[in-house]
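Is it possible to get an amino acid sequence alongside its tokenized fold?
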Amino acid sequence: MATQDSTARGQAETRAARAQMQAEMAAQAWSDLANAERSRDDNTARLKALRLAREAEDEAAAASKAAAKAAPKTGAKTVTKAAPKARAKKS
């Protein structure tokens, strides 16, 4: 009987140790998952901020180009090139 008790006790300890190890591994896996999600969310927020800043900059540049195009020209004369004179051929 003593051997059956010690064998049963050893099996119970093994099961308990395995259950504890699995619980620790599960906790670590959940922690890793949470860290990965947090990292992904932080990266997404950073990239969104960069995209919005770039879009705002592009819109500002387009608005300044439109304003420069629409601005009236003040007193500037248009200079045209005279047509080049035809050269006479020497015969």
Q: What stands out?
A: Residues 33 and 39 are 10 Å apart (CA to CA). The longest helix spans residues 2-70. The chain has a mean pLDDT of 87. The two ends are 135 Å apart (CA to CA).
